[in-house]
User: Which sequence fits this backbone?
C-alpha cells in the first residue's frame, strides 16, 4: 500500500486523467540497466522508491524500484518494471496525491 493508505492501484475517469495531464513512457534498457525518466520516480517518507505503471487504460499501479544512479533526467535502476512497461512520466506526483487522498 502507499504510505499505509491501502492504495496500490488508482483508477481514474477519463476527465480526471485529462485534468491531471498524465503522460507515460516505456521503461528502456541501456547497457543491461533499466532506465526511467527521473520525473517518474517517487520517494516515500522512509526512502523507498517507486513508479506508477500503466497496465491498462486509466489504471495506474505502484511498482517498487531500486535506483542505482541519477544521470540528468534519467534514473538508472538495478530493479524495477521490465523494459517496455509503461510508467507515468508526467503527473506521477499528482497521481500519488489522488491515490492517497491528499488535497481532497
Assistant:
Amino acid at each position: 500500500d502507499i504510505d499505509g493508505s491501502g492504495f496500490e492501484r488508482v483508477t481514474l475517469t477519463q476527465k480526471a486523467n485529462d485534468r491531471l495531464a498524465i503522460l507515460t513512457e516505456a521503461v528502456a534498457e541501456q547497457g543491461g540497466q533499466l532506465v526511467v525518466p527521473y520525473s517518474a520516480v517517487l520517494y516515500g517518507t522512509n526512502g523507498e522508491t517507486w513508479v506508477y505503471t500503466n497496465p491498462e487504460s486509466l489504471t495506474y499501479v505502484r511498482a517498487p524500484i531500486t535506483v542505482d544512479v541519477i544521470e540528468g533526467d534519467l534514473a538508472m535502476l538495478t530493479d524495477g518494471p521490465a523494459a517496455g512497461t509503461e510508467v507515468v512520466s508526467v503527473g506521477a506526483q499528482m497521481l500519488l496525491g489522488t491515490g492517497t487522498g491528499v488535497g481532497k
About this structure: Confidence is low (pLDDT under 50) at residues 1-6. The first helix runs from residue 14 to 20. The longest strand covers residues 59-71. The chain is about 15% helix and 45% strand.
